[in-house]
Amino acid sequence: MTPFAYRSAANCAEALSLGTGGDVRFLGGGTNLVDLLRQNVESAAQLVDVSRLSGSIDETDNGSLLIGASVTNSALAAHPLVRSRYPMLSRALLAGASAQIRNMATVGGNVMQRTRCVYFYDADGARCNKRQPGSGCDAIGGFNRYHAILGASQDCIATHPSDMCVALVALDALVHLDGPDGQRTMPLAGFHQLPGTHPEIETVLQPGELITAIELPPATTATTNSEYRKVRDRSSYAFALIAVAGGLEVVDGKVADVRIALGGVAAKPWRAERAEAALRGSPATRANFMAAAAEELAPAQPLDGNAFKIGLVQRTIAAVLTSLAGDQA
Amino acid sequence: MPISINGADYPLPDDPRVSLLDLLREREGLTGTKLGCNQGACGACTVLLDGERVLSCLTLAVQAEGREVVTIEGLTGDGEELHPLQQAFIDHDGFQCGYCTPGQICSAIAMAQELRRGDPSHVTADLASGPNGPTREEIRERMSGNLCRCGAHNGIVEAIEVLLAGEAA
Ligand SMILES: Cc1cc2nc3c(=O)[nH]c(=O)nc-3n(C[C@H](O)[C@H](O)[C@H](O)COP(=O)(O)OP(=O)(O)OC[C@H]3O[C@@H](n4cnc5c(N)ncnc54)[C@H](O)[C@@H]3O)c2cc1C
Ligand code: SF4
Ligand code: FES
Ligand code: FES
User: Fold this and answer.
1) Which residue of chain B has the CA closest to A52?
2) Integer CA distances (angstroms), B40 to A60, A176, A324, B54, in order
3) How many CB pairs under 8 A join A and B?
4) Is A233 exposed, middle or buried (0-12, 13-18, 19+ CB in 10 A)?
């Protein structure tokens, strides 16, 4: 680890003023950043600790839920309104990491966490375009069981590892940002970037810009009737091979509203817009769920180690929606 | 502001790179907390921070400024030789080499509190009503952040189960 200075910010304004200048990094729970600094994958001149900024979860007048960026993953998962109105979000959080890590991890840090590609982590031994632009990608042709099948490029095939973000994208979450150029709010679905020729650019966050909150739009039947299913190599404390966040409203046997987002398939939480469009208005049957899933996965490009993901994602989408349809299917 | 460790104040390290784990073990001689993977994957370094379980290997010591740390050395009250959970681990063969044990015990103490609070877990069937008591399934899932290389998991789960069942009775 190269030496760095540490400052703790008491409020957002202080975080922003400390956060300007080269090589400054915001610190949440540290569960990803401390690890990356220790393994010399990243370095920083100064850390600005934002984990003590006020972290509250508040319902707004229009029924949205505003979640402070420093709220811990545990607190968010256990919040009564999240459990009752957005169960897929509680489920996604509870399926991630361990209780200890969820107690430390913040919402802002979870959104910004970096890929778990083993070559990205291997600073001494592997080539990685994300860590060192232009050096190559050892995952292509290497161990790529955990890598992307959608939206990857010649330069990087990494996935975004967050469970929480998959549910957030399915819930149409907005991310609130504050930075040197002022405040802005945008859909989380547009926040993470596909690798293209610049896999080192992962989000639209600008230097010195801070995530201040996540906003969940008011609950609907499809957010309340929702679940998160994660498939992994062991039943707990493991990153996803693939994951599906689903929400469904069935009226008169037909799909009135549907939300599908996928984890473990791309460099961003993947909203399955094609599948959703195919399903809206159609009879809520398992056959239709399978067909819509196949349509979503049609552009998939499997690698040596992960072709199994295509079928696995399709069957998991169908299983989640069938379960949500219950006896209305 | 200093860090409180097991009720006593300790100064912050000058170098912010020092982890809470290294502060405990290397600087303050509190070697009960163990170093396993040093990257968040094993749970051997689990301590309580303001009463909640965290990994001391991924916590910078400076982040604990003004907060209360409790380690395995600080669990027993006045005149108490062993914490009831330490005794339960002995009674139910909850360890072999003992390396993971301090982390297991700190983790289980916080886990019991999470269960009493009604916090849900991945295996909780009904999110709204919360966990259905300290079942084996709940304990196993909630303790999954603490690995045991000796494979003493059955004894560990049994020790926790028996202790929590006794508490509820
Ligand atoms: C062993 C292990 C297993 C795991 N398993 C899972 C899993 O199964 N599923 C899963 O989803 N995750 C898993 N994780 C990852 C974990 O969820 C993340 O490490 C965590 O969410 C990161 O949050 P943090 O607050 O600790 O972030 P930090 O490590 O503090 O920061 C991460 C990044 O976010 C930036 N950042 C932090 N806060 C802000 C902010 N407010 N604004 C802008 N940037 C910010 C930092 O600069 C840094 O780049 C696992 C981690 C470990 C170590
Ligand atoms: S997949 Fe991406 S992160 Fe992994 S080695 Fe290739 S360039 Fe690096
Ligand atoms: S030493 Fe901290 S989790 Fe392994
Ligand atoms: S008792 Fe040896 S690692 Fe658990």
Assistant:
1) B63
2) 36, 29, 35, 10
3) 99
4) exposed
Domain extent listing, chain A? 5-51, 221-328
Q: Do B59 and A34 touch (CB under 8 A)?
A: yes
- Average pLDDT per block of 10 residues along chain A, 329 residues long: 95 95 94 98 97 94 98 98 98 98 98 98 97 98 97 98 98 97 98 98 97 98 98 95 98 98 98 98 98 98 97 98 92
| Domain A5-51: which CATH number of 3.30.43.10, 1.10.287.1700, 3.40.50.2300, 3.30.413.10 | 3.30.43.10
Amino acid at B26: E
CATH for B84-168 (3.40.50.80, 1.10.10.410, 1.10.150.120, 1.10.340.30): 1.10.150.120
The answer to ipTM > 0.90 is: yes
Mutate to test the pocket of ligand 3, among B23, B47, B54, B55 (most ligand atoms within 8 A of CB): B55
- Is CATH 3.30.390.50 correct for A221-328? yes
Contact in structure between A187 and A170 (CB atoms under 8 Å):
no
**pLDDT recorded at residue B169:** 57
* Protein residues whose CB sits closer than 6 Å to any atom of ligand 3: B 35-38, 40-45, 55, 57
**Residues of CATH 1.10.150.120 domain(s) within chain B?**
84-168
Quote the minimal CA–CA distance from B91 to chain A in Å.
26
Q: Name all residues whose Cβ lies below 6 A of ligand 2.
A: A 115, 117, 119-120, 128-130, 137-139, 156-158, 199
What is the spatial distance between Cα B106 and Cα B86, in angstroms, rounded to a whole number? 10
Return the C-alpha torsion angle A314, A276, A205, A220, nearest 10.
Answer: -120
Q: Do B145 and A100 touch (CB under 8 A)?
A: yes
Q: Which CATH number fits domain B3-74: 3.80.30.20, 3.10.20.30, 3.20.20.150, 3.30.465.10?
A: 3.10.20.30
Quick check: helix, strand or coil at residue A46?
Answer: strand
| A267-317 pLDDT per residue, tens | 999 999 999 999 999 999 999 999 999 999 999 999 999 999 999 999 999
Q: Ligand 2 centroid to A237 CA: how many Å? A: 23
